[in-house]
């Protein structure tokens, strides 16, 4: 099944700055198919010049965009949402082609991305302020919410449509203008979304996008970090990079939203519905081949049900169909690149060397291509293993036995990260004890699929700060101005 587009002009291969598609200094970046390594397209490998031009355009467009009535901004976003949904199949094909996830997942991601555009289109008209009761006669006091200004959005490769929508939609809804740098592995989906935003009527300069390789990304981002006109950075990616952005933002005191690494625990208590727990783990762990920041990374199973759970899980995992997105039966696609495969393999080998046992999978699948890894279940995992300390970011489930609630909660919290956590139990008293005790920004109780546009998404500790989605997601693109008028008597 070829992943060809019914609307070929959606595959854009230039930067979009000040309403124009433009090239840069002639350097290019190859975009390749992770399933085969074949070249898909070449996009600009931009540097400081393009980054400055994008910031100039966003700064120039900001005064008019912030004065655009909220209802009008909402109407533009709604048109963007309609165009995204109208081109859902093509956008899904682009995602699957450059990111590798099965086509059904790619098309599903487009619907998920559109849900954020629609949500923030509606929230644009609800950025209400407050009238404050005055402490003295003859005075009126107000708190007004205003856009922060130019926003720099830096997005990851694992959800190239959803992540850009989750950042750009609230920024535009709030009245901010945007400069964006998509991930070097998956720029085509982001460029297509920007093309549809322009078609929807987003004015020139309000939304700008610049592509760059890993090597030149610091050159692009440093321009925005040093530019005092850029008032906010929103970033999804690794914790070390997030900390670097926080340090470099200090000189200009930018507002930051950082959605960083995770090390999510998944706890199965002895009173859990095991079949439901397996269903939840499959949904949470194997979406996008395990390449999500909220994937369960450490799975703790009570010793009384461990063996039964492991058997049920291994049967489900071994039945997963691995293959390219061009095969409609594929459930797990290739990993994004060679670095990802090497990390997954290193984690499995380290776990086995330290006493873990492979129930299913555990190896590459070279017959399919260079970037495939078999979905894997390990037993006898423990906290000494690399897979317990680092995000594997792949289709590997390590199972650890536990005997005591307090013990497993302590183990779950024994990480610098705190993005997501999951647990399964039918004891209502335990449910609230454990939900309160887990140190995470997102907690799933008897549920493996957590994300929704109406819910706040973000972490604590080294998983960052700020929230995306929900009413809280709009707040991150606004600041509050206090206005006091006197002499009214």
From TrEMBL:
Which GO molecular function annotations are given, in alphabetical order? succinate-semialdehyde dehydrogenase (NAD+) activity; succinate-semialdehyde dehydrogenase (NADP+) activity
Q: Which Gene3D superfamilies match?
A: Aldehyde Dehydrogenase, Chain A, domain 1, Aldehyde Dehydrogenase, Chain A, domain 2
The active site annotation covers 259
**A Pfam family annotated for this UniProt entry:** Aldedh
Q: Name one GO biological process term.
A: gamma-aminobutyric acid catabolic process
Q: What is its EC number?
A: 1.2.1.79
Could you tell me which residue ranges the Aldehyde dehydrogenase domain spans?
21-483
PROSITE patterns in alphabetical order: ALDEHYDE_DEHYDR_CYS, ALDEHYDE_DEHYDR_GLU
The answer, when asked if Ligase is one of the entry's keywords, is no
List the InterPro entries hit by this protein, alphabetically.
Ald_DH/histidinol_DH, Ald_DH_C, Ald_DH_CS_CYS, Ald_DH_CS_GLU, Ald_DH_N, Aldehyde_DH_dom, Aldehyde_DH_Superfamily, Succ_semiAld_DH
Keyword tags: Oxidoreductase
Which family does this protein fall into? Belongs to the aldehyde dehydrogenase family.
PANTHER family per the UniProt record, alphabetical: SUCCINATE-SEMIALDEHYDE DEHYDROGENASE, MITOCHONDRIAL (PTHR43353:SF5)
Name of this protein: Succinate-semialdehyde dehydrogenase [NADP(+)] GabD
| Source organism of this protein record | Variovorax paradoxus
